[in-house]
Amino acid sequence: MKKYIPILKRTKLFAGVGEEEIESMLSCLGARLNKYKKNKYVLRQGEHLNDIMLLAEGKLLVQKDDYWGKRTILRSIMSGDMFGEAYVAPESGSLLNDVVAVEDSVVFFFDIRRIITTCSSACRFHSMVVQNLFFAISEKNRFLVQKIDNISRRTTREKLISYLSEEAKKQNNAEFTIQFNRQQLADYLSVDRSAMSNELCKMRDEGMLEFEKNRFKLNVLNKYTSL
């Protein structure tokens, strides 16, 4: 676990906590470390959670398949991201989605009861972690609101514009890299991949953007193409 402490220090959950303090807190928080190969399930729909998880290495997708195999991607989880917090409250019910490793990944598990309960040693950074957890959940709610805004648009073009505009703002740059490949982006926006690819090509031909794989550049037009 010790080699991942510098990564934990950069996460929102441990913001403001030093590396030495994090190391001493791991046992206090009931930390466990699990490794997952590419394409393996970290969590499956229907499971009940007692832990908050944090990705130390790799990449995960939160996804859901319907009865006929149609897949929807809710979000990607990158190194340093926290997940599972929505299902650890009493009576929160079982997990509604799957979490799958799309790269070889390493995941920390933290016992939620130990996080929200003051430890016997009363370490002064424990309350800071609880505060960070609250702020991280608030930020996650904002992300979900933004996704609803993206997928509620009527057309594929409107969904792409909404999503790409938000990514440019988030990364504070007109040139940016997204976390999805083409199929994953289509699943995230709940659109057909072929229709989405065709729309991206039209937007490129109109001068609205440029792209190569998951790298995008948004252009400012003198005469904006209407939605």
Summary keywords:
alpha+beta, four-stranded antiparallel beta sheet, Arc Repressor Mutant, subunit A, disordered C terminus, globular, 227 residues, Jelly Rolls, 2 domains
Task: Characterize the structure shown.
The radius of gyration is 20 Å and the shape is globular. It has seven helices and eleven strands. It has helices at residues 5-9, 19-28, 112-116, 126-151, 156-171, 182-189, 193-205; strands spanning 32-36, 41-43, 51-57, 59-65, 71-78, 82-83, 98-101, 105-111, 175-177, 209-212, 215-218. A hairpin with a 5-residue loop joins strand 4 and strand 5. It is an alpha+beta fold and 227 residues long. The model is unreliable at 223-227 (pLDDT under 50). The protein folds into two domains: 2-140, Sandwich (Jelly Rolls); 153-218, Orthogonal Bundle (Arc Repressor Mutant, subunit A), CATH 1.10.10.
Q: Give the overall average pLDDT.
A: 88
Unreliable sequence segments = 223-227
CATH architecture of the largest domain: Sandwich
Please state how the strands of the largest beta sheet are arranged side by side: 1-8-3-6
Major sheet summary line: 4 strands, antiparallel
The level-1 CATH class of the largest domain: Mainly Beta
Roughly how many Å is the radius of gyration? 20 Å
Count of runs of 4 or more consecutive helical residues: 7
Please identify which CATH superfamily of the largest domain we are dealing with: Jelly Rolls
Q: Note the run of SSEs as H and E.
A: HHEEEEEEEEHHHEHHEE
Q: What's the structural domain tally?
A: 2
Structural class: alpha+beta
What is the fold named in CATH at topology level of the largest domain? Answer: Jelly Rolls
| End-to-end separation | 50 Å
Helix share of residues? 25-40%
Give the overall shape, derived from the CA principal axes: globular
Annotation, overall tally of beta strands: 11
Portion in beta strands = 15-25%
